[in-house]
Write a structure and sequence with these properties.
two-stranded parallel ribbon; 7 strands; alpha+beta
């Protein structure tokens, strides 16, 4: 039996306050001007496990429902306007009906997922799709593709190094990925690093795909990640904190930024404890 929230577990007033904060933070990020989705993703960490916990995650999901999976400045502004619309506005009324049902514990999580699947701000119906390149990789085979490429460069080495792994990551970033009958948009790249779990230092490269159906409505999001994990006791890593670099529309610029990092140069030939590959819906 599908459970839902208990009455009062997700207070309507708190959800609305957090939703306004998420939209405001995303709008304040200057990258909202130049990159679809980036500012909205940037706003997420403040409202996850280190913030108001599950209430923040639901608030983030509600904002995503408004946006329909796209988060440029225009759509964020439209989301702000929808939040402030008159009660007679059909989309505003629908949004606050669902928020009220969450507060009252009158909606199951399955119903919540179904209700919020199609954005309140509808997407423009796409035109004729551009033919995929002949060497495009299917999304369903991405993990296998990377497993093969990584095994070719690491071989039987028990201690992988960045100098061998990075060329595979950079080459994959430049390969087209297809997910027919769904369409991939907002294909973005992330380099992130820091002390994540069990005191390990991790350097992670993630490719994120936003998927849309034939009507141009948001369907889901998938991430592929290649991570190098280093021992906590390594003295060379003590000076590095946690940070990230998202790609913009210029992939070559992102690659150059990553390679210019002091951290990248420090780790280039340093043996890692582990090499991890994941491919999951998020």
């Amino acid at each position: 039996m599908d459970r839902g929230p208990s009455p009062g577990e997700y207070p309507a007033e708190q959800l609305v306050v957090l939703m306004r904060q998420i939209i405001a933070e995303a709008l304040a990020d200057p990258r909202a001007e130049t990159y679809e989705g980036h500012a909205f993703q940037r706003a997420r960490p403040a409202f996850g496990g280190d913030g108001p916990g599950e209430v923040g995650q639901v608030a983030f999901g509600l904002v995503g429902w408004i946006l329909g999976g796209q988060a440029n400045r225009q759509r964020l502004t439209m989301a702000e306007e929808l939040m402030n619309a008159e009660a007679s506005d059909r989309r505003h009324a629908r949004l606050f009906e669902v928020i009220g049902r969450l507060d009252a514990g009158e909606i199951s999580w399955d119903e919540f997922a179904a209700v919020t699947k199609k954005g309140l701000i509808r997407n423009v119906r796409p035109g004729r799709p551009v033919p995929a390149p002949a060497d495009a990789v299917r999304l369903s085979t991405v993990k296998h593709h990377l497993e093969v490429r990584l095994s070719e460069v690491t071989g039987s080495a028990s201690v992988p190094v960045l100098a061998s792994v990075w060329p595979v990551v950079a080459a994959f970033a430049g390969r087209s990925v297809i997910a027919a009958p769904l369409e991939i948009r907002d294909d973005m790249y992330l380099c992130q690093w820091g002390w994540f779990g069990a005191g390990e230092f991790t350097l992670d490269f993630t490719r994120q795909y936003s998927l849309y159906d034939k009507d141009g409505d948001y369907d889901s999001m998938v991430q592929t990640s290649v991570s190098l994990v280093y021992p906590a006791e390594d003295p060379d890593l003590a000076r590095f904190g946690s940070d990230e670099i998202w790609s913009g529309s210029n992939l070559e610029e992102w690659i150059e930024q990553v390679e210019a990092l002091t951290l990248f140069q420090t780790l280039r030939e340093k043996p890692a404890n582990a090499l991890r590959l994941s491919h999951n819906a998020v």
